[in-house]
Here is the input.
Amino acid sequence: MAKAVKKADLPRKTCAACGRPFSWRKKWARVWDEVRYCSDRCRRAR
Here is the structure.
C-alpha cells in the first residue's frame, strides 16, 4: 500500500489571476505543468 503524502509536501503554484498560492490536486496530475489558475472563477476573470 502506498504511503499518503502530507498536504504540506504537495507542489504549490501562484495563481496568475489573483496571486494566491494553490496546491496540487489529483485531477491536475496529468496537466500540472499547464495549470495557471487556482479556480474556474479566476480562469474566467483573467
